[in-house]
Write a structure and sequence with these properties.
It is a single chain. Helix 2 (21-39) packs antiparallel against helix 3. Helix content is 56%, strand content 16%. It starts with a helix and ends with a strand. The strands form two sheets. A two-stranded antiparallel sheet has the order 1-2. Strands 3-4 form a two-stranded antiparallel ribbon. By secondary structure, the protein is of the alpha+beta class.
Length: 122
């Protein structure tokens, strides 16, 4: 009996997104908002349930490409915080973000997108 139940559950979860960083952040927001809603302000509980529903939606979604794209967009700012070998600068002309090596002194940088040349200390 339990083998049949396990097989059915395995088939149901096959091809699902599962828990990723954005889903975990939504679940953490649920827990925080739920705790704050109990003690501070009652309408926060509704936001907490919305965060929980969003986390469950992400977890059971079968649209893997869309969920992967959303998760990568969520993780992009955190990637820069861990990158100790590079510095991120903005081109003064086209405002695109450029990645240059850190600790090389004063560099003459050429933007690969617009061709603008500028100097910065890394």
């Amino acid at each position: 009996m339990f083998a049949k139940l396990g097989d059915g559950l395995r088939r149901f979860l096959s091809g699902r997104n599962g828990m990723d960083a954005l889903g975990a952040a939504a679940f953490a927001a649920y827990l925080i908002l739920l705790a704050l809603g109990r003690f501070v302000w009652l309408p926060l509980t509704g936001l907490a349930y919305a965060a929980a529903l969003y986390a469950l939606f992400r977890c059971f979604s079968r649209n893997l490409t869309a969920r992967r794209r959303e998760n990568q967009a969520f993780l992009r700012p955190f990637r820069r915080l861990r990158d100790r070998e590079h510095r991120y600068l903005r081109c003064p002309k086209c405002r695109r973000t450029l990645r240059v090596p850190r600790g090389k002194g004063r560099l003459s940088i050429r933007c690969p997108h617009c061709g603008e040349r500028f100097e910065k200390t890394t």
